[in-house]
Amino acid sequence: MSASERVHAALRSRILKGDLRDGQRLVVREIAQTYSVSDLPVREAIRMLQSDGLCVVNRNRGACVTTITPEDIPGAYLLRGEVEALSTRLAGPNLSETDLAKLASMAQDMELLAMQDETEGYVAVNREFHALILARCPYANIRRMVEELTDGHFDYAVIFGVDTRELSRSSSHHNKLVDCLKAGDWHQAGAVSMGRKMEIARTLLIALNRPVPPELYSEAPEAGNDYE
């Protein structure tokens, strides 16, 4: 691994974990000192982060961690939801009995972690759960698209932090998804995946005191719905 690849991997990991926050500046000299490299590989790493959609570079501030604005949230999560729903439907027929058993076990683990309010452990299992499903999608370009869209969004630790109910909502989603996959109902599995992304978008918009557009409801919200 080259110096630029090493720095890129380290910065990418820190951004996705939330150690480097939205809008935070990426100062070349500071990064170079942190990783004991010259400025050149740091600049190359920043260009790689730009390609990932994880940072932006402007003339006045230099490189900064990408900020998803409230205006971006509906479209970003609708797009991600559609692509993840597609990848889930395509992955379904390729999941083995061993895969399904592992997914069920991870769903149980997440249910327990949610009850214990163990966000960090939950996030780790959640990533492994979705990575397994995505790995069974037969098309590399769709897998890459899901990964790119995921990288450009809020980390799950941030989402769980804005609403204490998100852990239990997420756990319920995983149980429903496993049930659909076990039943061989790939289309419903995709619908469950899409519904969860819309739920996340609603949670984020409400936390930011922004209106929720009707497109983020799979059906018309009922009276008394938390998202009205």
TrEMBL record:
InterPro entries named among the record's database cross-references: GntR_C, TF_FadR/GntR_C, Tscrpt_reg_HTH_GntR, WH-like_DNA-bd_sf, WH_DNA-bd_sf
Residue span, HTH gntR-type domain: 1-68
Keyword Isomerase: no
The keyword Transcription regulation is annotated on this UniProt entry: yes
Keyword annotations from UniProtKB, A to Z: DNA-binding, Transcription, Transcription regulation
Gene Ontology molecular function terms on file: DNA binding; DNA-binding transcription factor activity
Cited Pfam families: FCD, GntR
Top-level lineage group: Bacteria
SMART domains membership: FCD, HTH_GNTR
Name of the protein: HTH gntR-type domain-containing protein
Lineage: Bacteria, Bacillati, Actinomycetota, Actinomycetes, Mycobacteriales
